[in-house]
Amino acid sequence: MAAKKSTKDKLIEDESNASRRDFLKKSGLFTALALAPPSLVMASENKWDEKIAGYLETVPLSIEVNGVKQNLNVEPRTTLLDLLREQLHLTGTKKGCDHGQCGACTVHVNGTRILSCLTLASMQQNAQVTTIEGLSKGKKLHPMQEAFIKNDGFQCGYCTPGQIMSGIACIKEGHANSREEIREYMSGNICRCGAYHNIVDAITEVKEGGMSS
Amino acid sequence: MKNFQIIRALSSKSAVISIAKEKEAMFIAGGTNLVDLMKKNVVAPDKLVDITALDLKKIEFLTGKTSIGALAKNSQVAEDKAIIEKHPLLAMALTAGASQQIRHMATVGGNMLQRTRCSYFYNTDMPCNKRVPKSGCGAIGGSNRMHAIFGASDSCIAVHPSDMCVALAALDATVQVEGPKGKREIKFTDFHRLPGNTPEKDNTLQNKELITSVEIPNNNFTKNVHYLKVRDRSSYAFALVSVAAALDIQNNTINDVRLAMGGVAHKPWRLTEVEEFLKGKTVSETIFRQAADLAMKGARGYGDNDFKLTLGPNAIVEALTIASSK
Amino acid sequence: MSKTSNINRVDGFAKVTGSATYSAEYKTDGVVYACLVGSTIAKGRIKSIDTKKAEWAPGVLVVISHLNVDKPSGYAKAKDPHNFGQPLQVFKDDTVLYYDQPIAMVIADTFERMQYAASLIKAEYIKEEHITDLQKAKDKEKKVETDKGDDYHRGVQDNYKNAAVVLEEEYTIPTEVHNPMELANIIAKWDGNKPTVYTKSQGVEGTRRSIGGVFGIPPEDVSVNSEYLGGAFGMGLHTWPYEIAALIGSKKLNRPVKLVLHREQMFTNVGFRPYTIQKMGLGATKDGKLTGLTHEAVAMTSSYEDFMEGTVNMSRFIYNCDNVSTRYRIVKLDTCTPIWMRGPGEATGSFALESAMDELAHKLDMDPIEFRKLNYAEKDLEQNKPWSSKYLLECYEGGMERIGWKNRKNKPGSVKEGEWLVGYGMGTGTFGCYRSPTSVKAKFLADGNLVLQCSVNDMGPGTATMMTAIGAEITGLPSENVVIEMGKSGLPKGPTQGGSATTSSVGSAVHDACNLLVSKILGLAVETSTFKGMAITDLAFANGVVTSKKDNLKSVSLASLLSANKLENFEVENVSKATEEAKKYSIYSFSVHFVKVLVNPNLGKIRLAHVVSCADIGTVINQKTSAGQMYGGAVGGIGMGLMEALEIDHRFGRPINNNFADYHVPVNADIEKQEVFFVNKKDPISNPMGTKGLGETALVGMAPAIANAVFNATGKRVRDLPITLDKILEPRVANA
């Protein structure tokens, strides 16, 4: 899953991380923040302290989302889902459970469908992420998006981005050879409105290439 | 979730060294279980060592054995053509687990290290000896539909939730690990442990050893195998009971057999005594039934999970029947 | 079929591209993040609450609890339920009434910092003994002190006991939780004393009243936006404490506050279908004529609110029986208040009634459908009124044919497919057709578009699409030219979305407003020189052009009509209501679910090999979205029948499976083969379109259909939902 990059890049990255660590150790702030409430009082009472603290708690992240390169600073604990929704305002990717139990947050990372809620953004250095917003070209929809509309593969629409990202991957992976196989390989995406019948119709239609509407 | 420091390891040696020194440091790979546990405040590491850059993703077919890198993804193994051919039981078990998205993320090593799904373990307001030693076991006398019928203790009746591990336990796999003191090998069936008085320990890893690979010795279990998973819905649910059955049948006689159960104990439950019983016998439902009854020796229920005492043996018969008729 | 009867969902593009904006997704400058910290006991008082660590944590702006809350002025009016809100006043005092009741709120600058800070809050309690187990507390039942809570009797009370063939059984359903995919969420902000909320509400106007009541301001001062809802299934029928908390926080900080519940909190804080114990008594003659029917229910409610639903109501009218008694009681437990969940009480009641009917048919050795037909109600004996329309028999026929009912044998366990035991079952559903006063504004713009406005929202059934179809049909416009503005305050007042009443209420209002608009346009058109001497009846309006029916070369475009009258647009705002005529009839939708199950008794595995859902819902406005709703209702019923149950550890009064891994809802693999059939005949009375409502009845009757099919396959009668595998598992017997 790791992005392709040269060993040299990796070393540089690791070195910069290492030097950051040294800095953190020298400043003592990181440890203090993590462990000692008195420092937190300081951090809270002095606005500048808190801002520095906030910055020191982040790591640099270079990530490509829907073809756009982003150079960001993120907290190590920030999930890819929260990064997309709260920082990049790409709210098409949905939070349904936040624990890997519903599939609403499904996105493609380096071409593979994964759950963004269980993915730490800080571990996605140089990754290529595709979200629902990255599928269509303006008004020109991806065939799977067309098929979901035509076959009414949704009602409330909240699980839909995850279903569509999953459905595209399902075909690409070669797991859409029968309705039964589609049902199994789409079972990681819960639809509480119960549109499963139509979701399978939509994926079957795209798989068979029949996109006339 | 508490914030933490994250560093990326570039070699297994540096990974092991960087983690050994720190008390609250952990490895992270797929993150499918660890991130979840961190969100629930069940674990709160100060430091994560990202091991995803390590060269431990290969599936290799060596003389006499198959080696699967600890960082190979669950889906990568499940869909590997040679694995499907040589170890179909493993592929079936992997495919029965979680969802495709999670299988794309989860690694073989991480799958082995996943924690129990016991609700009392997950809910930090509840007593749980596994999470907080000596805090009590909520599941005993509580809600225990998912829980163990074998090898449990007064401290813990949780089960190991993996499907993959049930197949690996059946297939006599070994676990290769690397620690500060060097490398060693652990028999898969010795890797996970029973709870006893120390349910906080899931396995026999020491000093934050790193799992580097899993090895499966060559075998003849390529045809008459079945992984049966019984659960509360058709997919994307943990096993109530699962059975990994592998038979080597010649002229309707069982030459060799491997049998293990999931969802019934703190570890994948290998049934060696039952295997011995079956060896040399002619395939028949009666024999399978006798085997299943033998398998239940020592089983006990805790109330909600009493049905597993019926389901368990039925599942064994079913799995053996399906495997033998392939 | 009209050209609009199968149009695609009008919000489809927004939903498949991720551009549909749900409540917490509105980009709001300066927004900060809030979350609720819940109590860890089920009953008692907060002895102390330590918020210091959280307050000191990086990025935290404020921690609010009962100790420092600025109480909204409406809190003083203690017992005012504001008809949409609920009596639990968040952070009011130190009382804990249920597990995970909000005791504090943390607001911080980022999501991650807020989450972490919340984990630092610790409280100590003075515990009191809680009761969360209805089975143990059912003796503490009481009557609901409203007319609806009264017992019902027709004919001889409990006459079933005197019958030749008697069935007396108890049925239970567990607590089930709505769990829409979208978490309950809100962005709250204040402009002076006027709040604005983007929230997950099924009723914009109700939320305005409720918030207005809590904060002592007129509802008109409250702006509510609920344009997109990621499902709700009833949980959006209340204004919940989390919404008030966000408003309190926003007011305190004078900043927009975003609050999203965790999935775990969706199980504890925003209602559920209540655990209900039902007793059925059915009596029949030997040839299968019902002579007595008694239906009693005991359901849970919270300690602070009496909640009831129509659990026993269906038994009063669905069959032709002269002697019917119903009784409904509640028991106060230490939980959050229940709230109607799709199908609501009728789904609960139909599980008991339709299971009992199946059991009695079995006792009589009759085909369950023949038994029902024999007791078919030609009129509504409860209200003593004729049905406005009833095509229940057509539903039976349609389903029997599609499911292959002829392959069913009365004797359980007598049909096999390979190793699988085969069973067929059916269950009847019904739901009343309601119509609320609704205001719709219809506007024709010079660009040729028709704008329809109403504050009603669309939680998924396709309300906007239905409005579009009706608007396009009446005005003769292509559906692409209809623009819907809905789901927020400030628009003409629409109803709450619920009770299957939206199409009847809003659709009728669209129908009426559009007709008035067309009349207005034609009225102006006859004044023009083109149509000189013609009457309105001589003119037709379609696709934005008025044309003479006699001479289609004579036409006037809307644009020229507008400019001639010096108008920017033509508009009509109109309130539509139910007619007096409708009161003379009993108006119900009917559904029948059929299932074919395959059962492996060794593993307890139940497969739904085929599900057929038939319904008489009057006119089907849009085949596509209606079918979607029916599929979905059936799937909801499948969850109810086979897997959904909130499990409580009563020692702690806490849920055990409050997450999506352990609280099972159906996944794609559970739904093997599904079909939908609508009778699609216009109801002459219900409303101008002749619709009767679908959303609820789409679920009602599915759970008993499954239970009946499982019985037919295995001979095992499961009377406590859900039908999990342990309930039908058989010790394996070796084949001889």
UniProtKB/TrEMBL annotation, chain A:
InterPro entries in alphabetical order: 2Fe-2S-bd, 2Fe-2S-bd_dom_sf, 2Fe-2S_ferredoxin-like_sf, 2Fe-2S_ferredoxin-type, 2Fe2S_fd_BS, Aldehyde_Oxdr_Iron-Sulfur, Beta-grasp_dom_sf, TAT_signal
Domain 2Fe-2S ferredoxin-type residue range list: 59-135
Keyword Nucleotide-binding: no
Keywords: 2Fe-2S, Iron, Iron-sulfur, Metal-binding, Oxidoreductase
Presence of the UniProt keyword Lipid biosynthesis in the record: no
Matching Pfam families: Fer2, Fer2_2
Superkingdom of origin: Bacteria
PANTHER family: OXIDOREDUCTASE WITH IRON-SULFUR SUBUNIT, OXIDOREDUCTASE, IRON-SULPHUR BINDING SUBUNIT-RELATED-RELATED
Name assigned to this protein: Xanthine dehydrogenase YagT iron-sulfur-binding subunit
The organism of origin for this protein: Flavobacterium saccharophilum
Species classification: Bacteria, Pseudomonadati, Bacteroidota, Flavobacteriia, Flavobacteriales
TrEMBL record, chain B:
Cleaved signal peptide residues: none
PROSITE patterns: FAD_PCMH (PS51387)
Keyword Transmembrane helix attached: no
Cross-referenced SUPFAM superfamilies: CO dehydrogenase flavoprotein C-terminal domain-like, FAD-binding/transporter-associated domain-like
UniProt key word Flavoprotein: yes
Single Gene Ontology MF annotation: FAD binding
Domain FAD-binding PCMH-type, first and last residues per copy: 1-221
Domain of life: Bacteria
Keyword terms: FAD, Flavoprotein
Name of the featured protein: Xanthine dehydrogenase YagS FAD-binding subunit
From TrEMBL, chain C:
Keyword set, alphabetical order: Molybdenum, Oxidoreductase
Molecular-function GO term, any one: oxidoreductase activity
Domain Aldehyde oxidase/xanthine dehydrogenase a/b hammerhead per the UniProt entry, residue ranges: 17-129
One Pfam family in the UniProt entry: MoCoBD_2
The organism's place on the tree of life at top rank: Bacteria
Signal peptide start and end residues: none
Gene3D superfamilies linked: Aldehyde oxidase/xanthine dehydrogenase, a/b hammerhead (3.90.1170.50), Aldehyde oxidase/xanthine dehydrogenase, molybdopterin binding domain (3.30.365.10)
Protein name in UniProt: Xanthine dehydrogenase YagR molybdenum-binding subunit
